[in-house]
Amino acid sequence: xxxxxxxxxxxLAFAALAVSGPxxxxxxQGYVQEVHGNVTGQIGTGSSLQVEKGQTLINNAxxxxxxxxxxxxxxxxxxxxxxxxxxxFQVQNYDYNPKAPENANAIFNLLRGGLRMxxxxxxxxxxxxLKVGTPLATIGIRGTEFIxxxxxxxxxxxxxxxxxxxxxxxxxxxxxxxxxxVANPSTLANIIPLNQVPPGVLQMxxxxxxxxxxxxxxxxxxxxxxxxxxxxxxxxxxxxxAGAAVLISTENQSTVVHH
Length: 259
Description:
7% of the residues lie in helices and 39% in strands. It has 259 residues and is mainly β. The chain has a single domain, classed as Sandwich (Jelly Rolls). The chain has a 16-stranded mixed β-sheet that branches. A hairpin with a 3-residue loop joins strand 11 and strand 12 (154-167). The model is unreliable at 1-24 and 226-259 (pLDDT under 50).
């Protein structure tokens, strides 16, 4: 009887752990669609390992591309991200449920280098759901396509839709066809002619990026699995560096919102 009781207690303990949530395991909601050259990944402060096509992404995953390399990341809502060479990109938090899109949330960090992004359904019901943080400013996105490159200063080109660039100086809304520069964290983003962008900056690999929602294929997790700490050492404080909440607008011109 005592042995049976201990066995039952053990079963119940494992059952409790199994339902305890993301602290033990996370459901992968993104994956590596394409890899070219030397691309590495890690979870939090864990070991950096080679990234392979088809591997899945969980929160706190960091992807780094080497010289002459690129990677394409895809998420369940259809959001697609193309990382150019010499780029470090973090999935700080991604949570999307097609049955409750109003609760969607996606926070990415561009720590260095450049990316091209096409957003999917994550902002379909919550226009503040997707943000890309950098050391100089935060980009808020609503159903759009843009290119961004952090080379100090920070350059952005809006291909489609609308973004807002926010830092401690305030928030500025930009629309399709506009190029943007952010000189430092305390200076407002400004429109510049595209021909004033330095050669090679905002130039991306020729890859047919598309935004099509779909399930994440099964595969090993980038960085070797869950673990390696929470990654607090590499995560940017979204909004803290910007000094203001991200604002989204659909106006067809740049708009400054001071705080």
